[in-house]
Design brief:
Structural class of chain B: mainly alpha
Low-confidence stretches of chain A: 1-7, 95-102, 121-126, 254-260
Distance between the termini of chain B: 25 Å
Oligomer: heterodimer
Low-confidence stretches of chain B: none
Strand order of the largest sheet of chain A: 1-2-3-6-5-4
Number of helices of chain A: 12
Largest sheet of chain A: 6 strands, antiparallel, barrel
Shape of chain B: elongated
Order of helices and strands of chain A: EEEEEEHHEHEHEHEHEHEHEHEHEHEH
Structural class of chain A: alpha/beta
Shape of chain A: globular
Radius of gyration of chain A: 21 Å
Strand content of chain B: under 5%
Chain lengths: 383, 107
């Protein structure tokens, strides 16, 4: 397998340790390692679990790896992060993919790297152009993007780029056209990028569209856009070459684009990051779209941007009791969607609080995740 | 849910041990704020264990939480000793689960 030195490709990376899960982007993927852009650091040699993915390009692929190197932020285009070195035994042994299709990890990576290293195929220039919508109010970014694509894609017309300077214009274009990729800046006038992403994910026709969020907003912007459903977050200033390689791969895989069924959205509010990560993993596995919040301000932001079909609220949290949150949502905000209280309180106490708060019900954490998923299905998938 | 358990158990074990350490420290200090923090840590631990399906852990964690709540009203040394013993029992239970399920490194 050829080592890839120059053809950089951006994919989504989720790093999990015993203490936390960090979502970011990764590039410089080779058969043995990948560089993950992140503020998260750990000692060289620290073992991690790594999940790489990008819609239509790379099915979720689980790997074990170790921190091989740490890089501090440098010049623009040289973000800080960690190089993760894959567990070679696992890759060689062909561990099953997350999708459960049995395709060995090594084969999947090799195929991806070969495609990145290969010349731009005719597929990009045939049929119809690869259509991209860039939503950014910065004229400079739009001009740079247009210039960069004209240099990267040799044949004029291989790529068609639309621009929108705010969410409303973007929504109008999304309603009337089909795009292979949407790139959304977080800081937009009137409605922010996270809110636009959430709208897009709720729309049956658009929900499966690959979305890359961009911003200078750092961690807050990353968390807001990824929670809203962005596939990837890339810090500005952008290194367009990396993004274009991803774009090129998308262009090759347009034939795999397919509509997805309408997935119900669930917002989970809990002060425990562990409970949030676990609940999110279980509900996503069950086919739901999930956003999470660990404090009141984040919850309120997500509630507006994500517009959930169901809200799960922990009860005993430092900032507020979940039943008070539910009661406020019902009484003051007129929220009609189902609300479930989720807690390790006694069942009788939880039932009393749920009734008083006009919640739709409750789930004891002690009943476990299968029961929580069952109750969500019961509320959201009932005829 | 087995894959979720395998994925999240190591993280749970590390977190739970930290929470128990915080709880033991808080019990030793005996002031209201420390006791309250102990109660919160144990409540959260019980919830996390429950979501993960560790049904053996939940009752013991909740028992510890209740014992910690009782410390709010004029606790005796015996009350504290009983809680600390229960916390060590909880720690051993979690350690045992960790070792049985995939031999996670929890050192």
């Amino acid at each position: 397998m050829a080592l890839l030195n120059s053809g950089r490709l951006i994919v989504r990376a989720e790093i999990s340790t015993e203490n936390e899960t960090v979502v970011s982007c990764a590039y410089d993927l080779t058969s043995t390692s990948v560089f993950v852009v992140t503020e998260w650091h750990a000692a060289v040699g620290t073992p991690v679990r790594l999940r790489l993915s990008f819609p239509r390009i790379l099915e979720p692929t689980n790997l074990t790896a170790r921190v091989g190197d740490i890089r501090l932020p440098g010049e623009p285009g040289e973000p800080g992060g960690v190089r993760l070195v894959f567990d070679t035994e696992q890759v060689a042994a062909g561990a099953a993919s997350a999708a459960g299709d049995g395709e060995p990890v090594a084969q999947r990576l090799e195929s991806l790297l070969d495609r990145v290293a290969s010349p731009i195929p005719n597929a990009v220039t045939e049929d119809r152009p690869c259509r991209v919508l860039l939503v950014d109010d910065s004229l400079l970014t739009r001009d740079m993007f247009a210039y960069g694509t004209s240099k990267f894609f040799e044949r004029p017309g291989a790529l068609a780029i639309d621009h929108a300077e705010d969410a409303e214009h973007a929504w109008g274009k999304l309603a009337s056209s089909t795009y292979d990729l949407v790139i959304i800046d977080y800081f937009l006038p009137s409605e922010d990028g996270a809110s636009l992403i959430a709208r897009l994910r709720r729309d049956r026709r658009l929900a499966d569209t690959p979305v890359v969020a961009i911003s200078v907003g750092g961690r807050d912007a990353r968390e807001a856009t990824l929670s809203a459903g962005a596939d990837l977050f890339v810090d500005k200033p952008l290194v367009f070459r990396d993004l274009f390689n991803t774009l090129r791969m998308l262009a090759e895989h347009r034939e795999y684009a397919r509509p997805t069924p309408d997935r119900k959205a669930i917002l989970v509010f809990d002060d425990s990051p562990f409970a949030l990560a676990l609940t999110r993993a279980a509900l996503e596995k069950a086919g739901f779209k999930v956003a999470i919040a660990d404090d009141l301000s984040s919850f309120e932001r997500q509630r507006v941007a994500f517009d959930p079909d169901l809200i799960l609220v922990d009860v005993q949290m430092p900032e507020a009791f979940g039943d008070d949150v539910a009661s406020t949502l019902r009484g003051w905000h007129g929220v009609q969607v189902p609300i479930l209280l989720v807690s390790s309180l006694d069942q009788s106490e939880l039932a009393r609080r749920a009734q008083r708060a006009q919640a739709s019900g409750y789930v004891c954490k002690g009943a476990g995740m299968p029961e929580l998923v069952r109750r969500c299905r019961e509320l959201l998938e009932a005829p | 849910m087995d894959d979720l358990l395998a994925r999240f158990l190591p993280q749970f074990v590390t977190l739970a041990k930290t929470r128990i350490t915080v709880a033991i420290t808080g019990v030793g200090q005996r002031d209201a704020a420390s006791v309250q923090k102990t109660v919160r840590e144990l409540h959260t631990l019980a919830g996390e264990a429950g979501l993960l399906g560790l049904s053996q852990v939940v009752p013991l964690a909740r028992d510890c939480e209740q014992k910690a709540k009782n410390l709010h009203s004029s606790p005796t040394s015996t009350d504290v000793d009983v809680l600390v013993a229960a916390l060590h029992e909880l720690e051993q239970l979690i350690e045992g689960i960790s070792q049985r399920m995939g031999g996670a490194n929890t050192s």
